[in-house]
Amino acid sequence: ETGVTQTPRHLVMGMTNKKSLKCEQHLGHNAMYWYKQSAKKPLELMFVYNFKEQTENNSVPSRFSPECPNSSHLFLHLHTLQPEDSALYLCASSLYIQETQYFGPGTRLLVL
Amino acid sequence: DQQVKQNSPSLSVQEGRISILNCDYTNSMFDYFLWYKKYPAEGPTFLISISSIKDKNEDGRFTVFLNKSAKHLSLHIVPSQPGDSAVYFCAALQTGANNLFFGTGTRLTVIP
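YS: structure for the whole thing
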């Protein structure tokens, strides 16, 4: 089983839909992260969870709602998204905050 | 404004030659720097890192150089191999902060 998995790998949704992205890590890590990568832009950190507690929210709009039920799972709930939210959403984990992050393969999201 | 910049979006190198990927940063508080490699349809994978107390770190064919006064780091790959063809991301962080700042990436193509 690979270290960090993300589902789905691809998602197309309308602006009125509600969907969720899932991330799971099998590395025994305590910190998990959501990143957004838009075309020709650097990876942007969205949320950080450390021991299931949210420690960072980088001014992300409320239409993105993270959930971390345990140290191994991280969700990103999406509702009423905009076309400009179309991007690659990457999950990462690290043993502790500031240690090397291991990334999942990402979910390619298209909002129509 | 981007705090980590990779000004070359792409680089082509002949197999066996040296590849040099460059990265500049603006925040003098950054004290830890990482390089990630990304293949298509996969998440970034950690490659090599360097702390600001060092000016060089070597791991096999990969060497990272840090010039703090110039706020510049570079990744040298020698000899370059076709399997090294990927997008390389530079990242930086400040100890004590949760945010890892990424550059926009450089696509390396190693020509057989």
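YS: worth flagging: The radius of gyration of chain B is 13 Å.
IM: good catch. Also The interface with chain A takes residues 2, 4, 32, 34, 36, 41-46, 49, 89, 91, 93, 95-96, 98-105 of chain B (CB under 8 Å).
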